[in-house]
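Hi team,

Filling in the usual template for the complex we talked about on Friday. All components are listed, including any nucleic acid strands or ligand strings, so the model treats them as one assembly.

SUBMITTER: L.P.
PURPOSE: interface mapping
COMPONENTS: three
RESIDUES: 983
SEQUENCES:
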Amino acid sequence: MTGEQIIFLAVALFTLGSGFMVVTTRNLIHAALWLISTLFGVAVVFAILNAGFLAVVQVVVYIGAIAILFIFAVMLTRKDMRDQGPQTNQNWWVGALIAVLVFGGLVFLLQGWNGLSKTAADIPSGFDAVAELGNELVSPAGYVLPFEVASVLLVAALVGAVYVAFNRK
Amino acid sequence: MTTETLIWLIPLPPVLAFFLIVLLTNKNKALSHTLAVGAALLSWLGSMIVFVRALGVEHLGEHPFESSIPWLPTGDTWLRIGVLVDPVGAAVLFFVSITIFMIFLYSVGYQNFGQPEGDHDHKGLPPHGATVEEHGHKHVVPSVEPMYSRFFAFLGLFAFGMYVLVLSDNLLTFFVGWEIMGLCSYLLIGFWYAKPSAREAAVKAFMTTRVGDVFMLLGIAYLYSATGTLSFREIFSETILHTLATVPSGVLGLSAAGLIGLLLFIGTIGKSAQFPLHVWLPDAMEGPTPVSAMIHAATMVSAGVYAVIRMFPLISLDAQTMTIVAFIGAFTALFSATIAVAQNDIKRVLAYSTISQLGFMIAALGIGAYVAAVFHLITHAFFKALLFLGSGSVIHGMEHGVLHTGNHKVDPQDMFNMGGLRRKMPITFWTFLIGGFALSGFPILTAGFWSKDEILADAFGHGHWAVFLTLAVAAFLTAFYTMRQITLTFLGEPRTKEAEHAQETPWTMTAPLVILAFFAVTYGWVGIPEHFPLLGGLIPNWFHEFVGGTLAEHPEAVEFNFIPLATSLFVALGGLFFGWLVYRNVNSAAEDRLQIPLLKNKYYFDEIYDRVFVKPAIWLAETFVSGWMDKGLIDGILHVFGPVTDRLGSFIRNYIDLPVINRFFGDGSADVTYWFGGKLRAVQTGRIQQYLMFALAVFIAVGAALYFFLLA
Amino acid sequence: MVPLSWFLILAAALFSVGLFGVLSRRNAVAILLGIELMLNSVNINLAAFWRYGNVLEMAGQVFAVIVFAVAAAEVAVGLALVISVYRTRNTVIADDLDMMKW
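RESULT (copied from the run log):
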């Protein structure tokens, strides 16, 4: 077991554990906070994968914006400060079963693939992933079109969200 | 235009007039009669041109004007129809066209054109007079016929039929013309259809001639099956005639020619009102007088004789048939002359006279006197048409008197109500006199003498004593009843008030009389026999030469003998004298000693036929066929169908349709679906998590199935 | 030295956890939390395949960036909807939002 593997295992356990807490804890604010820790774990995973930009964006956007948004939403939709009753619905066991089956299915499918035990190749020296990503995002020969379309999508979502949640008085 | 084309066109104007009047100008009286008379004039002009051209052809009999077209495909060959004008055809065309034209013209006046409409005239009844105010004084005048245009339309159709018959070159179109005239005689005899007597007379005429027509059709069919052709020229070729004469027909020992001739002759018996099918002609007087003239003098009955004339080469092949023909002709001549003597109605006398004269012609043909028969046919047409139109004029004059006195019980057609009319209606009198003398055979000056004399001469000259005697007696009676008629009608003093107030008729009626009288006098002079004392040889016997050329063997003129001439003179003059002698003092029917019941009732033939034929036929139709078979049997069967179907239907409805199909299948499937739907809709909970779970469960299942069955 | 399979299994597990959360949580906001987990697992997958494939091909990272944007948009709209529903129906329990029931 190399050091990398140990670190990875720790991070993975942390992430999965937080995720599990997200979906089981009764208190919604706690759930949101557990989400933040899960997201943080994912950011570390990105860092392990040498995707530095993604790690930073994960923290800034997901944790900094989306998780905050969740907390706001939880606060705005509480009848009182206490959460009453069970937080899982009647058929939670069906959901659990399905989740297990999906996991099992995915793992089973992965068994047949021979590229599994690949180890990571070395990154060529002088290769700046971030600069390269930026180039690709705005280069016409690259992915500028999906990039711009994503922006349009965001505008649409923005307008939609404002319209839907607008308080007409 | 070639003569053949002109011949094709001759029948066209009358039928065009018929269609135009029926379809377009029915309301307009003046236009209708103009169309009709104009058409008759055109046909007459065409006929005259053809006749004149025919006169100029040498040996017209050997190459007549003919033209035919292939018409009906019959296997490999064609049945051809066409026109033919040979000498006899030309001669007949001459008189047919002019008499038709005269009758058309006459009808304008007869149907009272120009007179006001009647007070209470109905379509279907004869017109009854209109009240007119003149200088503050009311009197009744004759009114115009309400169905004026219809009359001319039918006359046009009639003329068409006659022209088709005269001009055709084959038995098929001949028969077509024959039947068209049969139809028109029905239509015209029953012209005043609201009178029951007219309706019955029309049916009687049609039915009786139809009996004859059936046999004629049989004859035509037999002829066609034996020879394969209906064209006259082909039938009268040497080979076919020889075949027909020798092949036995198997009926009554006659040869094929004999049987065919007999069957065709039966058609003539019907159409020309010979005994025993004579009963329709007197009743046909119910029609307006121009109709009587047309049908019963000039055209239709002549068509019967024309048929025998046309088929003479065939009929003359068999001696037995010829004997039958001669017998029937002579018998009818005498038989109907005896009936004519006892008739009171002015038109009935003429009707029986027609039957009698036709008998003369038929007898002449039966003894082989071809030319004499044609001659008599033509002269008879002229003077009989003249007599009928004259009688119509007399009746018109009498009706004027009836309207004047207003006494409608007086029959304007009864001779015993007339008298002294020679002063009131001079033109009618003189023309009628000429016609009557022609009918009687007044010597030299009238055409009837020449033609009748020739028949008697022929009978005597060839040794047919029975025919000669019979015809001589009939000729005597003819003169007798003719003079009776003239005496009672015109001579003496008026016997009734109505006769006193009679008036001469307008020019449209008297002009035709004059024209026909001219022919009645002069036509005889074209056929003066060569060896006649004094006059013979002065004018060549053109008629004999011309018409005789029709036959393959030109008939010989009979040798002159004094006995038939003397007989002729005796019967004619004697009959006339006796007629005048007896009747100049008879003033009423009661005084007339010849009004024997047997004669008056026409030997009770009508009653016999009624009992033997008519009543059984009616019984068969009404009781047997209509009552028992149609209403009883056939309707009975149908009446069973109704309830059976009804019960079957309700069974199916109530026991199969409603419970099984409606309730079980229809409602049942609806209920099942409804129940299922009710159970299934529990799935729709509205909760998206459950939807998602379902989706994923299915996804997993399908994915596993796909993986394991397809990829593994 | 970490084999690729470990990353993929991590992503699969995270995905299943998120799926469980979506299927069985009562609160609508909690459902959205589960969705976020699933999206993150997808991102891990993408980044892993980028790293363990051809590093010079930026498609993996670009796709991950796009997924970020889409996730953000979806969260915004989703939460706006939840709030709007809460205002009218006064509830965020998913089971109570069953107006599409038969």
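MY TAKE: The two ends of chain C are 56 Å apart (CA to CA). Chain C touches chain B at residues 19, 22-24, 31, 94-95, 97-102 (CB under 8 Å).

Thanks, L.
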